[in-house]
């Protein structure tokens, strides 16, 4: 299959229907899969009600079939059409955070989406993305779109159309190139099907921001390491792994550099993941600086691209700095830990 690339850098006029968007929407209605940008990462979309189309997502990604997909909508009416009911608290969250990087898990409406989307669960995950292209494509297609990240399963999520093509060229019908995404890590998944709203996956909307609006929120146990966390089947799979083993180093740059030197003495090619503040303190085979610690959003935005660049550099080993777990830093460290398979080296303090 030849993968079509539609370049739509910017939607200048919201009223106008762009020919590229019309064509991509037609293909979606015909049961094809199309990748498109959202404000978090690129998604791989298919008609959520069409089982054959949804199966193409799993096939293209090589994704385990018990990992449910998020349904993307452009209007409240579409959201209402896939869920059984919207409790008042969920409605408040939608009003405050939609369109935006917040996914809500709600009881599903029977028969509204394919069983393959929900992996047999009684709930469905829904989100309205805050990206003009994503919204235009969903609206033009008239479909609720099941859309996981547009990467091969286990690879870092794509934040550019080039990342999508690196993983899926020839495996999907098309990709809409809207330039790099803004947030760079996936949406927050919040389970609203239980009494207390529970964060199943930290993401673009911080816990602090949720608390401000709804007062209290719980966090799912075993979010990080435990295999088979029951509420969100997707959590048990390793994600975002670069090819070389990645180690998170909780310590000073001097300590990290010492580790680099020890590994290089063993003949290994070593990569370092750092930020603007410390980049000058490392000598390694490749040093990638990803944003600034003064604004962890900048690190989140570039993280997946950095992980892919280490793959291209063919290093044997990567050491990454650790980041403060506050605000977006929670999502950032969650993804970094997954990429590291939980490996953290702690510096001994006197
Ligand atoms: P991805 O599609 O790669 O962004 O991952 C989607 C995430 O949403 C995974 O962690 C899924 O487990 C989670 N998810 C999707 N649907 C549900 C659901 N009905 N209940 C709980 N988690 C869900
Ligand atoms: Mg994903």
UniProtKB/TrEMBL annotation:
Chain ranges of the YrdC-like domain: 18-205
Residues the record lists as binding L-threonine: 40, 72, 127, 147, 187
Gene3D superfamilies linked:
DHBP synthase, Threonylcarbamoyl-AMP synthase, C-terminal domain
Q: Which GO terms describe its biological process?
A: regulation of translational fidelity; tRNA processing
Q: Which family does it belong to?
A: Belongs to the SUA5 family.
Instruction: Give the UniProt subcellular location, in the record's own words.
Output: Cytoplasm
GO molecular function, one example? Answer: tRNA binding
Q: Report the function annotation for this chain.
A: Required for the formation of a threonylcarbamoyl group on adenosine at position 37 (t(6)A37) in tRNAs that read codons beginning with adenine.
Stated EC number for the protein is 2.7.7.87
- Main enzyme class: transferase
Which SUPFAM superfamilies does the record match to this protein?
Answer: YrdC/RibB (SSF55821)
Q: Name one GO cellular component term.
A: cytoplasm
Entry keywords, A to Z: ATP-binding, Cytoplasm, Nucleotide-binding, Nucleotidyltransferase, Transferase, tRNA processing
- Catalyzed reaction equations: L-threonine + hydrogencarbonate + ATP = L-threonylcarbamoyladenylate + diphosphate + H2O
Q: Any idea which positions bind ATP?
A: 63, 67, 123, 149, 157, 201, 240
According to UniProt, the name of this protein is: Threonylcarbamoyl-AMP synthase
Pfam families from the UniProt entry? Sua5_C, Sua5_yciO_yrdC
């Amino acid at each position: 299959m030849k993968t079509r690339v539609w370049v739509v850098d910017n939607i200048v006029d919201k009223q106008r229907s762009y020919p590229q968007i019309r064509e991509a929407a037609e293909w979606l209605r015909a049961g094809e899969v199309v990748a498109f940008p959202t404000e978090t990462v690129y998604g791989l979309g298919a008609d959520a009600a069409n089982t054959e189309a949804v199966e193409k997502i799993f096939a293209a990604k090589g994704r385990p079939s018990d990992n449910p997909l998020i349904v993307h909508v452009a209007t409240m009416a579409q959201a209402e059409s896939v869920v059984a009911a919207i409790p008042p608290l969920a409605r408040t969250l939608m009003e405050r955070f939609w369109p935006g990087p917040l996914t809500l898990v709600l009881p599903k409406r029977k028969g509204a989406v394919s069983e393959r989307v929900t992996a047999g669960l009684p709930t469905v995950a829904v989100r309205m993305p805050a990206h003009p292209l994503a919204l235009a494509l969903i609206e033009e297609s008239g479909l609720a779109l099941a859309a996981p990240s547009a990467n091969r399963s286990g690879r870092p999520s794509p934040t550019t159309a080039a990342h999508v093509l690196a993983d899926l060229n020839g495996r999907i019908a098309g990709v809409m190139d809207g330039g790099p995404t803004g947030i760079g890590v996936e949406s927050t998944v919040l389970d609203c099907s239980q009494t207390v709203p529970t964060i199943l996956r930290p993401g673009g909307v911080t816990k602090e921001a949720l608390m401000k609006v709804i007062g209290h929120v719980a966090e799912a146990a075993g979010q990080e390491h435990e295999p088979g966390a029951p509420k969100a089947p997707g959590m048990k799979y390793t994600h975002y792994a670069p090819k070389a083993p990645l180690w998170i180093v909780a310590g000073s740059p001097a300590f990290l550099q010492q580790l680099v030197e020890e590994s290089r003495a063993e003949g290994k090619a070593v990569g370092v993941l750092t930020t603007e503040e410390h980049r000058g303190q490392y000598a390694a085979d490749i040093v990638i600086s990803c944003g600034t610690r003064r604004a962890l959003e900048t690190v989140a935005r570039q993280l997946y691209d950095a992980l892919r660049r280490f793959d291209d550099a063919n290093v044997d080993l990567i050491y990454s700095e650790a980041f403060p777990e506050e605000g977006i830093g929670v999502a950032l460290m969650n993804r970094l830990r997954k990429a590291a398979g939980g490996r953290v080296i702690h510096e001994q303090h006197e």
